[in-house]
Amino acid sequence: MKYNSEAFENFKKSISFIEKSYCQIKTPRTDKSGEFTSEEFDIFCEEHSIYRELTASYTSEQNRL
Questions:
Q1: What count of Cα atoms within 13 Å lies in the side-chain half-sphere of residue 11?
Q2: For 48, phi and psi rounded to 5 degrees?
Q3: Domain spans, the chain
Q4: Structure pTM?
């Protein structure tokens, strides 16, 4: 990914690939960056029954497995 503005399109492609190949995504964790908090992103997640957990920026400790 060259630009942060590409994050949403890459997210949609990834979700599509993962759901076709493996399973349904339920709860991804993202920080509160602008590319992950847009209204378009919220609508997409709601339409696909994806609940997002927002973490504080620069806290890798919150990204548990």
A1: 21
A2: -105, 15
A3: 28-54
A4: 0.60
Report whether 14 contacts 43 (CB < 8 A). Answer: no
- Calculate ∠ Cα 30-64-34, nearest 5°: 10
Other residues' Cβ atoms within 10 Å of the Cβ of residue 11: 19
Tens of pLDDT, residue by residue over 21-31, are 777 777 777 77
First to last CA, the chain: 23
With contact defined as beta carbons under 8 Å apart, do 57 and 32 qualify? yes
Two tokens at 62?
């919150």
pLDDT of 65 over the 60 cut: no
Cα separation, 34 vs 18, in Å, equals: 24
- Whether 4 and 35 have beta carbons less than 8 Å apart is answered as yes
